[in-house]
Write a structure and sequence with these properties.
By secondary structure, the chain is α+β, with helices and mostly antiparallel strands. It folds into two domains: 191 residues, no CATH class; 206 residues, no CATH class. The chain contains 13 helices and 14 strands. The longest helix has 44 residues.
């Protein structure tokens, strides 16, 4: 009697259908176990996608650096000395630090009055290079962002955030080509941007103007506020950060052990931390799911043990008629596999439906990092193989109990 023998499968389904209530209750443990496993794995994927959405448009191999005040006296200077970066520092870093790919210096106004036709926005004003979008991309909803021509010609143009647009313009009004005043200077609006669902350093109530224009109209000279730095792929951001700080400390006579003179923020550490968190969460989810599945499969084994006890007389008759231990064991194991697989498929369908509902409910939310909670084909395959393997191993317990029944003693059972 082979594995594909019709009579064998008829006996399996006949046995399982004799007591449908018990069969259904037995499968509930496996169903809930699969639901928990798939939901945990899917939810973890959804959180991972949500974090990716938050950081979309932000380069993972980037960092930001700014100046503060010294905390240690050095080279004849007292502590508390304020340091300012200049454009010469940008050129020096590019020459001396090979890990650096792009530097986008920025200058900003501490307080600026932004006016249009009697309306004010109280926006932050930033002087930028177009390369800032390589580090933190803006989602332009109308017009364009700053370009190199704006820098070269020091054009009096600007890009405004959506909040600034709402404060300065009437609803539905076209802002492109219109003028706004920033500290009494007129700038023509060439673009409107919207928050990109990612890390946003300026918000939507901001005005971006060309760096060179900012220098001239606001008389800031050669100073810069801070630098957004993009590191070459394959290079470590931390190494570049240490080199830049050492270089700047040497230039500005800052104590080598002074950790407060220059501030920095390493984006790669954020991405690494999130990746590690997601991996731990996935491992924990799979760990919990496996043990929940094991508990469900053990319930199947216990029910099959009871079934074997009830079928002692039947097994004795079959053994007396020539059924080998192998045939008896095969049927019991098949019953375990069928029960577990059927329950697993039901649990999988239910869990996929729940994940789809969660995506519909929370996927578009900007306040909760949860997007497209799916389960990969690899995870499904591993879960299915694991489920079948456990059902076979657990099925061996009642199967071995069945083959130990002696035909003579079984025939005496009432």
């Amino acid at each position: 009697m082979g594995i594909f023998d019709r009579d064998l499968w008829n006996e399996v389904f006949s046995t399982l259908s004799k007591n449908m209530l018990r069969t259904v209750l037995t499968t509930l443990g496996v169903i809930f176990a699969i639901i928990i496993l798939i939901l945990l794995l899917g939810a973890t994927t959804g959180m991972s996608n949500g974090f990716n959405k938050i950081f979309a448009g932000t380069a993972s191999n980037s960092m930001f650096m700014w100046t503060q005040t010294t905390s240690m006296p050095y080279g004849g200077f007292e502590r508390g000395r304020r340091i300012d970066f200049t454009l010469e520092d940008v050129d020096l870093i590019k020459r001396q630090v090979s890990e650096v790919d792009i530097i986008a210096p920025r200058i900003q106004s501490g307080s600026a009055t932004v006016i249009r036709e009697g309306k004010t926005s109280g926006s932050g004003v930033y002087g930028d290079y177009p390369s800032i979008s390589l580090v933190s991309k803006k989602r332009i909803v109308e017009g364009r962002f700053l370009n190199q021509s704006d820098i070269d010609e020091s054009k009096k143009v600007c890009v405004i955030g959506l909040d600034a647009y709402k404060l300065l313009f009437d609803k539905g009004e076209n802002a492109i080509g219109k003028f706004i005043q920033v500290n009494g200077i007129y700038f023509m609006v060439v673009g409107v941007y919207k928050r990109n669902d990612n890390i946003n350093f300026e918000g939507e109530n901001a005005v971006f103007v060309p760096f060179t224009t900012f220098q001239k109209v606001f008389n800031t000279g050669n100073k810069i506020g801070w630098m957004a730095i993009l590191i070459h792929p394959g290079k470590q951001v931390k190494v570049a950060e240490n080199k830049i700080k050492t270089l700047m400390k040497e230039k500005y006579n800052v104590h080598p052990n002074d950790v407060r003179a220059f501030g920095s923020f390493d984006m790669s550490e954020v991405f690494t931390g999130i990746s590690a968190f997601v991996m731990v969460l996935q491992g924990f989810s799979f760990f919990v799911g496996i043990f929940t599945l094991l508990a469900g499969v053990i319930a199947v084994s216990n029910i099959l043990l009871i079934t074997v006890k009830e079928r002692t007389n039947e097994i004795g008759v079959r053994r007396a008629l020539g059924a080998t231990p192998k045939i008896i064991k095969r049927q019991i194991i098949l019953e375990s596999i069928v029960l577990t697989t059927f329950a697993g498929l039901i649990g999988f369908v239910i869990s996929v439906a729940v994940l789809h509902f969660l995506d519909y409910k929370f996927g578009a939310s900007e306040d909760f990092p949860f997007v497209n909670p799916t389960v990969s084909l690899l995870q499904i395959t591993i879960s299915f193989i694991l489920m079948v393997t456990l059902s076979v191993l657990i099925g061996l317990i009642p199967a071995n109990r069945a083959v130990k029944i002696k035909p003579i003693e079984a025939l005496r059972e009432e």
